[in-house]
Design a protein that fits this description.
Blueprint: H1 4-9, E1 15-23, E2 29-40, E3 43-46, H2 48-52, H3 58-78, E4 84-89, H4 91-97, H5 100-111, E5 119-123, H6 131-142, E6 147-153, H7 160-166, E7 170-174, H8 175-178, H9 184-201, E8 204-208, H10 213-221, E9 226-227, H11 246-284, H12 290-300, E10 305-312, E11 321-324, E12 330-333, H13 347-357, E13 361-362, E14 366-367, E15 374-375, E16 377-383, E17 386-392, H14 394-398
Parallel strand pairs: 2-4, 4-5, 5-6, 6-7, 7-8, 8-9
Antiparallel strand pairs: 1-2, 1-9, 2-3, 10-11, 10-17, 11-12, 13-16, 14-15, 16-17
Length: about 400
């Protein structure tokens, strides 16, 4: 890293680069993140190491930050940009030096009150500090119509209750840092939760660090409204035309749509086939009790499933759990009989859907509590207010990419 003192002494040489941020709806540039660079003999280098180094005095960081803000805002305003300007904020600097009022003065001097509505302040490492102080900062900036973003969200720091408390306009997920093969399955589930949560509190979900096609697919699949990364566009000193990547994005998103549509078609075909098989067995065994029917269905759906049980529409389990043990034998587990599953968020809604349409339902992918495997559950109405549930075997799921 360059000598911090050299950077501060030559702060007038700092150059703001602008990395485009695209929206998924129209595939257009809707904003830019400001990234500070510094000229060297080898060319322009990022100042990210300077700002993230805890040994660099906060006074140094603020001196350089102020120059970056001035140059970036002046260039943004003089070029008549209509989108958003994302400015990185060092939480340590702003809390240590109490410069939030100076920031507002600076922004007003550069563009007036109307300019403030174009600004998005990106706060990182906020969970290392007192959340009440962060909340007050957010309220202060929000009173000036400035939008707030929480930056560098990953599976390690995705604290839902803190997001709810701060209510940021934008939740920014760094997919390049967080998408690790060792935790990928769990992280996708975190992203599912994050996407749902963002919608609940009215936040926009943004994915940064998109460096390859698979990253873009994950971001699109998990509700990323805003997209950013070198795969889409690198940062430059100048602004780009809003539709510079529209054709490319449309082609890629089109391929994602076709892929997901094919998966859904395969899942619907499987559901219809399972419906047919359940009804065939059910028609032949109408007089059997729930345990015998569940046992017969278990054998009929071997090896596709590893657990079968029957519930009433109100959630009470009528049969035992018929489970395939390690020896491949079907055994009855009586412990679950009589338990009520209506507390599960999906249960009542799905039973009513099955009752209305008289068809089965295939669940989303989830981790089974007992086996810790990623599975799906197929459920189907069997009459007399009862529903049968089949937990698909993990091997069966993994062998079919349209179930993953």
């Amino acid at each position: 890293m360059m000598d911090p003192l050299d950077i501060v002494m030559n702060q007038e040489k700092v150059v703001p680069f602008f990395q485009p941020i695209f929206n998924a709806e129209q595939q257009l540039i809707v904003g830019y993140e400001v990234l500070a660079h510094f000229p060297t003999k080898e060319g322009m280098v990022s100042l990210q190491p300077f700002f993230s180094d805890p040994t660099v005095p906060v006074e140094y960081k603020w001196a350089v930050t102020e120059v970056v803000y001035q140059k970036a805002c002046q260039k943004f305003k003089s070029s008549a940009q209509e989108g958003l300007l994302f400015l990185n904020v060092s939480t340590d600097v702003i809390l240590s030096l109490d410069v939030h009022e100076r920031m507002i003065e600076l922004f007003q001097e550069l563009g007036g009150d109307e300019f403030l509505q174009h600004l998005v302040l990106e706060f990182s490492t906020i969970f290392d500090y007192d959340i009440e102080n962060i909340k007050r900062l957010f309220q202060y900036f929000r009173s000036y119509n400035i939008k707030l973003a929480i930056d560098d969200v990953s599976y390690q720091n995705s604290s839902i209750n803190r997001f709810a408390f701060l209510e940021p306009e934008i939740i920014k997920v760094n997919i390049a840092v967080s998408y690790d093969q060792d935790v990928g399955h769990y992280y996708r589930e975190v992203l599912d939760t994050m996407g749902l949560f963002a919608r609940k509190i009215g936040s926009t979900l943004m994915f940064e660090g998109i460096s390859e096609l698979s990253h873009l697919h994950v971001a699109w699949r998990h509700g990323g409204s805003l997209l950013q990364g070198h795969y889409l566009q690198r940062p430059y000193e100048s602004f780009q035309t809003p539709d510079c990547q529209r054709v490319k994005l449309q082609e890629m998103i089109g391929s994602f749509i076709r892929f997901e549509q094919n998966k859904i078609r395969e899942q619907l075909t499987l559901t219809r086939e399972f419906d047919r098989r359940v009804q065939k067995v059910n028609q032949q065994k109408l007089q059997e009790d729930a345990d015998t029917l569940a046992e017969n269905l278990a054998y009929q759906f071997d090896p596709e499933v590893f657990r079968v049980y029957i519930c009433y529409s109100d959630g009470y389990q009528r049969s035992a759990n018929w489970i395939k043990n390690n020896d491949g034998k079907w055994v009855a587990d009586e412990n679950a009989k009589g338990k009520n599953w209506s507390f599960r968020p999906f249960f009542l809604k799905q039973t009513l859907q099955m009752e209305k349409h008289r068809t089965g339902i295939l669940s989303d992918l989830y981790h089974d509590i007992e086996t810790n495997e990623r599975i799906r559950t197929y459920s189907c109405p069997i009459g007399q207010g009862m529903y049968v549930y089949f937990d698909l075997a993990a091997e069966y799921v993994y062998e079919r990419d349209w179930l993953l």
